[in-house]
Design goal:
There is one protein chain. A two-stranded antiparallel sheet has the order 1-2. By secondary structure, it is mainly alpha-helical. It has twelve helices and two strands.
């Protein structure tokens, strides 16, 4: 066999077919790529044949490493960028914790709902205290309790429908932020707490129930909508779930205040009448809960402050950014 024919066959054996598997993110598409390492008939044929011939390999003691057949992973498959619209819950939680508006809304809900729940949870005790010294029977006192609770529940329900519709007009027609209505609801709660601190008759409980029901129904219509508009509907479940911790925290705090005031008022009555006084006279009156509502009224003032922060902080931040750009 002639040397030229042998070199031609050796060059032919040097042809390699390398398959590159390209990972496509839309659907894994395989593309075959054929690479001719040495073209036949080129001037480098004889040189390549001599260099990679078996005799030369044995003489030098080195072996030609085979080409790797492992698939090559494209760079785009290993450096995928997360879609901002599909952020994990941990990221949303971190962003919520770093947002001062979230803290202002949470603290506002705590200071708002606590005083309202103090009335809702203890209106029965208030009715009984106000009925002391009257001729009402136990059945009539029970009916009064039911009417007060029903009044508060009805106006809470009705205000949710009305305020929900008005907030849409407020936002779409007037182009005003819904948090402005949240501030108004906080002012209404302050008025309700001051009214509770001045209750002296059973008949005063009805306007108090109207004020409490209207203010709480309004706030709990506006707050979830503000949450969805501020942090997005895709994160609403997590964000609103954290915000709704506010009523639980505020309710426990204000119920403790009411209970402490009730115990202190009863202690003062017993001390004034003496331990030998008739048992029917040792009953709480409005002096047992009025100090509690004076305290919760002050807490309600803080709710208006935090709701004002929710209203003003985004606009102040946007104004400051525009000033910096200019």
């Amino acid at each position: 066999m002639s040397p030229s024919h042998e070199s031609f066959e050796m060059a032919e054996t040097r042809k390699r077919r390398m398959t590159v598997s390209v990972a496509n993110e839309a659907g894994h598409v395989n593309s075959d790529m054929t690479v001719n390492l040495i073209s036949p008939g080129s001037p480098a044929d004889s040189t390549a044949a001599e260099t990679h011939s078996p005799s030369n390999a044995h003489s030098t003691g080195a072996e030609t490493p085979p080409l790797s057949s492992a698939p090559i992973t494209p760079l785009s498959a290993t450096t995928a960028v997360a879609n901002p619209a599909q952020l994990p819950e941990e990221s949303a939680l971190i962003r919520l914790g770093r947002d001062p508006i979230a803290w202002a809304l949470l603290l506002g809900i705590i200071c708002f709902s606590g005083p309202g729940l103090a009335f809702v949870n203890n209106c029965g005790s208030m009715v009984r205290a106000m009925s002391h010294g009257t001729t009402l029977t136990e059945e009539q006192i029970g009916q009064y309790k039911d009417k007060i609770v029903a009044t508060q529940s009805f106006f809470s329900f009705f205000s949710r429908l009305v305020v929900g519709y008005l907030s849409d007009l407020w936002r779409t027609k007037l182009r005003l932020p819904r948090s402005g209505l949240l501030v108004i609801a906080g002012l209404l709660m302050i008025h309700a707490q001051n009214t509770a601190a001045r209750v002296s008759r059973l008949e005063d409980m009805y306007p108090l129930a109207v004020l409490i029901g209207t203010s709480m129904g309004s706030a709990f219509t506006l707050a979830p909508t503000i949450t969805a508009e501020t942090w997005g509907a895709e994160n609403f479940g997590l964000c609103w779930g954290i915000i709704t911790l506010g009523p639980a925290i505020g309710g426990h705090i204000c119920n403790l205040i009411f209970g402490s005031s009730w115990d202190q008022g009863l202690y003062n009555i017993i001390s004034r009448l003496g331990k030998d006084a008739p048992q029917d006279r040792m009953q709480c009156t409005n002096e047992c809960f009025i100090p509690a509502f004076r305290t919760t009224a002050k807490i309600a003032y803080f709710s208006v402050f935090f709701f004002t922060v929710v209203l003003c902080l985004p606009r102040a931040t946007a104004f400051w950014k525009r000033q910096r750009q200019e």
